């Protein structure tokens, strides 16, 4: 297995991706606080190694489904920051033309089939996408991201079983950040590891330190290989932690300041920077440069997105947008 | 059994094959043969699968069992297990897998064994399939077809007899068709698969054995109502199994000198409002007939469209609705029969409306 | 934010506490205080739980978090974990457990965090809760209350902004209320818990912070509409957040000399048809306003009831519907605002209707 | 643990219960074939030891939820045969006054909260019933019967987890009769034993020979004790087989005649008769008498039910039956 920290290009890419996700969400947090952004949003700050390690284990044309907490998945899969930011700023140039917002960003071109506002809603969709890969023999793999809370939805159960009995090329990546909104995983489950649920469907499950980029990368690589070889799904549980509240309305009453601080000590980005330093693959200036590249890219994205025209509040345009044009036929936009 | 008299309604002569010219299985295009409604669905599925590799089927017991109503009989043998996929009893996963496969360019046709089981998959149908194209700003489409047998009449009681079309007419982003004849069962299904949007095909289980003339390769565009007969005294708008009942009632009424128009919307979303309003305006009297319970049922929408349009000014009498009772469906055959409009109910209501001011 | 101007509508003076005289928490019966809609719900929950051991709460994040909209804040401390039950994210189980507990004599009040998530629990709501009493021949009842925040206006986009009341009005066996004021939020909830049938309480999330006078221990019987103001030119029937908008529009219209009646059905199933028809007949003009998409929405049912009744003969103009766009709800604030009727839209539509023939 | 075959009274009761269920369904099958019964029905012939062994392990005031294949549960929980038969014959004196039919028979008085037409639909209801017992401290236990097929519904998953995290007094009895309609359990699951799913929720699961009355009785007794002691749920998988088609429309194309015949060799009633004979607790005439008592009871039930008036096809009566009378208040009919 590759050791990402040891390969300069991979290490740089991983760092820049994690920093980009981090900086993007920090910016979003501020824009919100300053009343410049609207609606609601769910930040994955602290969870970047899960998204990044997972996506680094995939091929560019592999697919993912994401969640309400999806910015880092989106970034890690290679989305355009300006279009992401434009979407959050309700611009016509956003990924969803201002119609979807944070919970519905998708980037079909980079294989991101979309965030989802329904907890667990993306899991059956991922399984269907995997079925399409199997039927067409595309050789592609689908990763379904979801949270600990989502593992208690019926959608998870049905989708996991279907993938199992059909040996579909899907990897279930459960990002266990210890809470479903305010509900502690300890109280929502009577088992220690969510990965143990894989046994109920007959495929392997593993629990991983989700703040260890290399560990995530290795597990998902193994799982993706298995999937690609036609041997069916794997459940990878990335244990991690969200630093920020669930959404803007969260007062963090269900957890302690100490707990948050302890997890901030385990910052996945710092950890990987340390690993890179130890491996000696990048110099300190190179490490700093990766961080700065991310900061600059986000700043530039905000600038460009901000300057773009707002999504037009035109009723006819909205009505026209409900159905795909029947005359254009049912030709897929994602070549399967 | 309360199977109603199901008169063979006239074939769809105004709308011959005007869609993509797909050759029908075992039939030369243009041929017209007598098929049952179930056969028409089966033949269409066969054609579509033979014609397009992207089409495949998923559902409970659709393989060797042939589906609860035998509609998919023989398809497993012909197309194999990869394309005729028996699923576990997991409606969320069935519909959700359809959504995901459709997003990736396949053309899945999924079957829910009874339309009542939409209740187990509403998130995937309503929040995912119907909304994805819009929510993603047009960047993706979900050409998913969901087939589901609807309606009462088989003594299957409250959880296996519902007519839930009104729910889906209220969901922007999904189209809804309710074929009332074998020809429409073929033509609308073909159009549904041809459409880049999710389409819910509500087949009526009492119609599966009904026979009718079906042109080979028949195609019925979505969103076009059919005027099944014309008369000057009154306009009946009816859906699904009520179309046949309305036609039978019309025969009886004609014998007494009352001439009625019968309009079958066929697609209830998007609705062919123009045809309905024109036909109602022509007689000035509207009788709206559905099997579903009355309250907030689909024909309420038709009533609303009539009275908010210019057709309002042509009305010579209040609009009349005939609908199922506002009750869960009862098991006992006589109770079931009493719970939905029957031919005599239509005759009585039409007679009263025709004779009234 | 598109929070509409929410005029404080007048308290329910015609319907003072006429239900079981339950003493309000921290308030003498008969007292009238200003409360927000959220406070009114919270106080009612507190009263009911203090008063009846059978009442308990279940839902996602209703404990220490106080619910996504803070409605249940403080109840965990007061009543403890046994009676204020934080659940896993499992809507089928939440509603289903409510059904089972209700069947066994408890009075569960379950919260769905957003009303959109009914889609995850439709079988339990529609096939189980609503039908059990009937299917079992009356041998059991399901006194389950489901509370759910509905509607748009918070920038939460298509999967968190729906107004799905029409679906449930189409389901015999469940009752549906849509409180539009703090007083009704209290009174209808109390009546819902008092009722032996399942009741869906659709709270509108934009109303939670709205203030209004609330009589302590207030009780509003199910199935009774409220005439919020009377005028001779035209009758507006509006639901939920549209009631406040209609009242604001009515003020503007009054300034131009157009006097409107505003009727709030409050309970949409069973519907107080008599009040609506009387008020429409009194002016001969009906404007029906809802936030939900137009197609097959609930006010279509009101239109149908009007035109199939004698009120039809009193109509001086076509019935007018003002409704949400037939689209999924968009995220961008201006798009969201454009997607549902706003006060100026009501004013314009009312003016046109009042002045037209 | 008691050995039922050794106790004359228990043995007689078990035999009579199983024979009653068998004879009842044989009668139903014939009435259907002769066109005297309407609708659809699902027979549990061959599965009687599962229903009977389970209910014998319960107290009279314990509760059950049942399924579309529920006649034997209903009989085993002590229902009145005449009212059952009257329901199937669409009589006003039926359990549901002719409104529910086979798929909705309930007998609240004997603790049967009802059959269900929705696969898996009864499972969350059972969990809610168990919650009511816990909240009221009634000491009662709830058994939720469901099929192998139902274990793939989201409802099973969510309900099982909820029961687990709240330690509810419920026993999940999965009647694995090898098929969900035509779908072989082998194809619907990628695991060998459905009972293994209990591990996903953190409670015990056991697989039992469901045609062995004593084995079922023992497992459910243990599970019910555990539940009653406040130690939470158990999943008991009763492996059994249905002799008849899924419903009247079944052509049995998905299984072989030989398979059916092999399972008929393992008739649970014959097996228990043999055990009783071996134990010597009942004489042959007594065994025959138990069977005859069942046959007579069913015959009598048909006679009485047949003579009763049909459910009246009165629209007003139906409309009146939709809502419970609000004036009567929300007083429970099942004292919890
Ligand atoms: C079906 C459904 N139920 C509830 C919600 C409300 N909700 C949004 S996010 C969330 C918590 C999800 O927890 P988890 O799956 O662990 O993801 P995390 O937020 O921790 O990333 C909840 C309850 C929802 N969006 N959809
Ligand atoms: C939600 C739902 N899906 C599908 C069906 C149709 N159906 C009725 S019984 C059945 C098979 C059930 O299998 P299982 O749970 O193993 O029970 P069994 O019939 O074997 O007793 C199916 C698919 C249904 N009634 N409800
Ligand atoms: Mg989480
Ligand atoms: Mg089975």
Automatic annotation (TrEMBL), chains A, D:
<keyword id="KW-0560">Oxidoreductase</keyword>
<dbReference type="InterPro" id="IPR050642">
    <property type="entry name" value="PDH_E1_Alpha_Subunit"/>
</dbReference>
<protein>
    <submittedName>
        <fullName>Thiamine pyrophosphate-dependent dehydrogenase E1 component subunit alpha</fullName>
    </submittedName>
</protein>
<dbReference type="InterPro" id="IPR029061">
    <property type="entry name" value="THDP-binding"/>
</dbReference>
<dbReference type="InterPro" id="IPR001017">
    <property type="entry name" value="DH_E1"/>
</dbReference>
<dbReference type="Pfam" id="PF00676">
    <property type="entry name" value="E1_dh"/>
</dbReference>
<feature type="domain" description="Dehydrogenase E1 component">
    <location>
        <begin position="17"/>
        <end position="311"/>
    </location>
</feature>
<keyword id="KW-0786">Thiamine pyrophosphate</keyword>
TrEMBL record, chains B, C:
<dbReference type="Pfam" id="PF02780">
    <property type="entry name" value="Transketolase_C"/>
</dbReference>
<dbReference type="GO" id="GO:0016491">
    <property type="term" value="F:oxidoreductase activity"/>
</dbReference>
<keyword id="KW-0560">Oxidoreductase</keyword>
<feature type="region of interest" description="Disordered">
    <location>
        <begin position="1"/>
        <end position="29"/>
    </location>
</feature>
<dbReference type="Pfam" id="PF02779">
    <property type="entry name" value="Transket_pyr"/>
</dbReference>
<keyword id="KW-0786">Thiamine pyrophosphate</keyword>
<dbReference type="InterPro" id="IPR029061">
    <property type="entry name" value="THDP-binding"/>
</dbReference>
<dbReference type="InterPro" id="IPR009014">
    <property type="entry name" value="Transketo_C/PFOR_II"/>
</dbReference>
<protein>
    <submittedName>
        <fullName>Alpha-ketoacid dehydrogenase subunit beta</fullName>
        <ecNumber>1.2.4.-</ecNumber>
    </submittedName>
</protein>
<dbReference type="InterPro" id="IPR033248">
    <property type="entry name" value="Transketolase_C"/>
</dbReference>
<feature type="domain" description="Transketolase-like pyrimidine-binding">
    <location>
        <begin position="35"/>
        <end position="210"/>
    </location>
</feature>
<dbReference type="InterPro" id="IPR005475">
    <property type="entry name" value="Transketolase-like_Pyr-bd"/>
</dbReference>
